[in-house]
Sequence to fold (228 residues):
Amino acid sequence: DVKVTQSSRYLVKRTGEKVFLECVQDMDHENMFWYRQDPGLGLRLIYFSYDVKMKEKGDIPEGYSVSREKKERFSLILESASTNQTSMYLCASSPLPGTGGGSNQPQHFGDGTRLSIL
Amino acid sequence: GQQLNQSPQSMFIQEGEDVSMNCTSSSIFNTWLWYKQDPGEGPVLLIALYKAGELTSNGRLTAQFGITRKDSFLNISASIPSDVGIYFCAGRQYGNKLVFGAGTILRVKS
Fold:
């Protein structure tokens, strides 16, 4: 079974702090994703990465950055946390097309980090 | 960013009833996925659909990839209390990115 592990289930931080959310997957997947989930809005893509040190902006990248130094780990960084970044953050991974997984491999999700910014 | 229109937003149904929910878009998708999220957990894949017209079942769940490639539906037959949760549809047009619906919250009366 694919295992995507997010380091914290709950996190409380203060406005202006630099916040790191960590995600690790154990299936040697090339793709990793960060989403935020808000009521009534579903999941919105913040950033994704298709290889080590590679990253692409998603739909809502403002106020966030990411780091992919190792294949299994994808970090989301809130440079200066603000109250409107209070949300549930979900990490996901999937294999690249042609790597035995086919072109349409679904994403596998971690259990999420509920982040509150005070 | 693009969103899928998922309906209904929430449902409150009697145990044993059948449930239907759907997703529509103005754009064509090559893959449709249905996920379920239990409280306090991440979404878990229920069904994946890869061809227009495809009808796939997973136990009491049945999903179809619309023939126009712009919609998909999910049916749950004979609902039980553990069906409670949020159901998300997701579509892929190309590449690695998914677009998600806003979710359908399912509550079951026992």
About this structure: The radius of gyration of chain B is 13 Å.
